[in-house]
Amino acid sequence: MKLAFLVAAVLTGADEKKKPLFATVDLDRGETVEVRLPDDGKGTVKLLQIKETRDSPHRSATGG
Predict the structure, then answer these.
(1) DSSP code of 38?
(2) Cα(25)–Cα(33) distance, rounded to whole angstroms?
(3) 3-state secondary structure of 42
(4) Number of H helices, E strands in the chain
């Protein structure tokens, strides 16, 4: 009986349109954009600062 419920749940969910879990934006420092969220809401995103860490070419090639 449990298998029948599982199959019914899978079959009924197959027609539903899936929404993404995340919203991605591409910003420059100081830029502000309004984005549409996956739940159809709206939000404002502003990039305040960037902290970037890079390895030297030698270190990334040798792994050490």
Answers:
(1) T
(2) 8
(3) strand
(4) 2, 2
Tell me how long the chain is: 64
Mean pLDDT by 10 residues, the chain (64 residues): 46 63 86 88 91 79 65
Q: What is the sign of the dihedral through the CA atoms of 40, 43, 47 and 52?
A: negative
At residue 4, the pLDDT reads: 45
Give strand pairing partners of 33.
45
| The one-letter amino acid at 42 | K
**Which of these, 47, 20, 54, lies nearest to 32 by C-alpha position?**
47
Q: Report the run of H or E that residue 33 belongs to, with start and end.
A: strand 32-36
Determine phi and psi for 38, rounding to 5 degrees. -60, -25
pTM: 0.49
